[in-house]
């Protein structure tokens, strides 16, 4: 399943922002004559709204309490690949004292939000596409800001755990095959056998073994 329709709505004139105006709407659409309805789990998307008035950045939040919508994808002959995927925030277990106290109940006892699994992806999908799709399919909260200047989405929160919740050096990063790419998650095109991890850091990635300049994703 591809997420082209969501991204198309974000990038086209379904969304616009002025200097002082914020628009919010519910995304909901059905299959058309040129698209096939995907018989997957019910997709849940709560809202898509523009939140950064100065950069025209945009956000999409997939949540557990949102109404059902139908997801459609273009019919294409794309090769399926297998990718290992996980979402982990175990660094927070050693930093509960600096984590916002209202978020303590959101941290799993083992720090695993999405356990390591082999999942199917489509050739040409990005790390962001996969995160968005699995968040929707599994009714998992995920919030991002679309930043056209950098040509990538920036992940602000997963499972209602946000950047800066555990201090000014905290946030989400992604790692592929043990390495931290130095470009946005929308730009990393998945390959068969990739191991993708979304990880929460409390120390600019140093607590995850990353050295040098850090770019949150």
Topology, pairings included?
Blueprint: H1 4-11, E1 24-25, E2 35-37, E3 43-44, E4 47-52, E5 57-62, E6 68-69, E7 72-74, E8 80-88, E9 112-122, H2 127-137, E10 142-147, E11 152-158, E12 161-162, E13 171-176, E14 195-201
Parallel strand pairs: 8-14
Antiparallel strand pairs: 1-4, 2-7, 3-6, 4-5, 5-10, 8-9, 10-11, 11-12, 13-14
Which terms would index this structure?
33% strand; 2 helices; Ferric Hydroxamate Uptake Protein, Chain A, domain 1; 9% helix; four-stranded mixed sheet; 217 residues; globular; single chain; mainly beta; six-stranded antiparallel sheet
Question: Could you characterize the architecture of this molecule?
Answer:
The chain is mainly β. It has one domain: Ferric Hydroxamate Uptake Protein, Chain A, domain 1 (Beta Complex), CATH 2.170.130.30. It contains two helices and 14 strands; from the N terminus they run αβββββββββαβββββ. The chain has helices at 4-11, 127-137, and strands spanning 24-25, 35-37, 43-44, 47-52, 57-62, 68-69, 72-74, 80-88, 112-122, 142-147, 152-158, 161-162, 171-176, 195-201. The chain has a six-stranded antiparallel sheet with strand order 1-4-5-10-11-12, with helices on one face. The longest helix has 11 residues, at 127-137. Mean pLDDT is 74; it is low at 5-58 and 63-75.
């Amino acid at each position: 399943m591809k997420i082209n329709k969501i991204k198309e709505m974000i990038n086209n004139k379904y969304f616009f922002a002025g200097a002082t105006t914020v628009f919010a709407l519910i995304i909901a659409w059905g299959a058309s004559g040129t698209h096939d309805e995907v018989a997957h789990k019910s997709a849940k998307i709560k809202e898509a709204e523009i939140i950064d008035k100065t950069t025209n950045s945009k956000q999409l939040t997939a949540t557990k309490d949102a109404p059902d919508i139908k997801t459609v994808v273009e019919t294409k002959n794309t090769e399926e690949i297998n990718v290992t995927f996980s979402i982990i925030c175990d660094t927070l277990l050693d930093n509960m004292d600096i984590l916002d106290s209202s978020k303590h109940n959101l941290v799993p006892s083992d720090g695993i939000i999405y356990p390591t699994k082999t999942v199917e992806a489509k050739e040409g999908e990005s790390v962001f596409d996969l995160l968005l799709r699995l968040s929707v399919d599994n009714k998992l909260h995920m919030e991002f800001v679309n930043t056209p200047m950098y040509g990538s989405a920036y992940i602000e929160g997963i499972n209602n755990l946000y950047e800066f919740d555990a201090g000014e050096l905290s946030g989400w990063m992604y790692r592929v095959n043990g390495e931290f790419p130095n470009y946005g998650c929308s730009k990393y095109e998945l390959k068969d056998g990739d191991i993708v991890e979304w990880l929460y850091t409390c120390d600019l990635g140093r607590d995850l073994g990353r050295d040098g300049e850090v770019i949150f994703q």
